[in-house]
UniProtKB/TrEMBL annotation:
Keyword Kinase: no
InterPro entries documented for this protein: Aldo-Keto_reductase, NAD(P)_OxRdtase_dom_sf, NADP_OxRdtase_dom
One Pfam family here: Aldo_ket_red
Keywords: Oxidoreductase
One cellular-component annotation, GO: cytoplasm
GO molecular function: oxidoreductase activity
Ranges of residues in domain NADP-dependent oxidoreductase: 16-303
Keyword Oxidoreductase: yes
Protein name stated in the entry: Aldo/keto reductase
Species per Swiss-Prot/TrEMBL record: Maritimibacter harenae
Length: 328
């Protein structure tokens, strides 16, 4: 696995990281054994970097990672997040220093580590100046609790404000062949400021793969059940493009998920995508995506198959988008 820089921290991480939200049932039932098998596969594939949060299963994802590391005697590089208020109305955030410290310390305890490579504010508390939050996070870094800090779902303007206080190691936003919003400023601003850009859901929440999805079979807790892109007629329109992408990948001896992931990697050397899965077999379908090199002809074909704005439906419903910073 190739490596890439984590902002200005001086840390090298695997070019592809593993998102660990799926370990706790966000997209369907999961188990400890399955999560452990997936972490085994990640380690064996050369993945060094994990992404989790104190919100994933109310800390369960972090606990699983901590248990796995203790059991296997292996230490991943870890990014985790805090700042969302559990049990409060969706979108409620607390970015105060006492709240973030309490939740960071809880994450470290569950993970069984003294520090993490990266700590994100999961959602902004908009009334609180982001400069104040950056000062809090920089204080954690100077204490040795974290190696770097970042933000999730913020705007380019907010990133500039935070970076005026201290270097921001990473920002993460949804970014993939069907979600291009970060191209309208965030990818470029991160590059300019020496910040790593971390695409989450780079596989389109499972649609950009060789596995057929059945929205009718989604469980009540599955995020996609009420997501506009997975609701008819949008889903059928979207699958027309996905089937064309599958043909493109198959004709070149690649998996569809590896192609989708390679596309994100090709958008900049400061990009570290975090595909998520709880299935070790699925992980192996894209683990070598960093080896794919597109020709000019390949790039032209991808642009024809999935032109900017091709996806039918918004990436979030009105209820799901609460708390996310919009900038376009």
């Amino acid at each position: 696995m190739k490596t890439r820089k984590l902002g200005q921290t001086g840390i090298d991480v695997s070019a592809i990281a593993l998102g660990c939200m799926s370990f706790v049932g966000f997209y369907g039932k999961s188990s400890r054994d399955e999560a452990f098998a997936t972490l085994d596969a990640a380690r064996d594939a050369g993945i060094t970097f994990l992404d989790t949060s104190d919100m994933y299963g109310k800390g369960l994802s972090e606990e699983m990672i901590g248990e796995w590391q203790k059991d296997r005697g292996h230490r991943f590089q870890i990014a985790t997040k805090g700042g969302i208020v559990a049990g409060a109305p969706r979108g409620t955030a607390d970015n105060s220093a006492p709240y973030l410290r309490e939740h960071l310390e809880g994450s470290l305890e569950r993970l069984g580590v003294d520090s993490v490579e990266l700590y994100y504010v999961h959602r902004r508390e908009f009334p609180r100046p982001i400069e104040e939050v950056a000062e809090t996070l920089e204080g954690f870094r100077q204490e040795g609790l974290i190696k770097g800090f970042g933000f999730s779902e913020i705007s380019p303007a907010a990133l500039r404000r935070a970076a005026s206080v201290a270097p921001v190691a990473a920002v993460q936003n949804e970014y993939s062949l069907w979600t291009r919003l970060p191209d309208l400023g965030l990818v470029q601003t991160a590059k300019e400021l020496g910040t790593t850009f971390v695409p989450f859901s780079p596989l389109g929440r499972g649609i950009l793969s060789d596995h057929d999805l059945d929205p009718a079979a989604f469980g009540d807790t599955d995020f996609r059940k009420n997501n506009p892109r997975f609701i008819e007629p949008n889903f059928d329109f979207n699958m027309e493009h996905v089937r064309a992408l599958r043909t493109f990948a198959r004709d070149r001896g690649w998996t569809t998920s590896a192609v989708a992931l390679a596309w994100t990697l090709h958008q900049g050397d400061h990009i570290v995508p975090i595909p998520g899965t709880r299935n070790p077999a699925h992980l192996m379908e894209w683990a070598d995506a960093d080896e794919i090199i597109f020709t000019e002809s390949d790039r032209a074909a991808l642009a024809d198959i999935m032109p900017v704005g091709w996806a039918h439906g918004d990436r979030y419903s009105d209820a799901q988008i609460v708390g996310i910073e919009r900038y376009c």
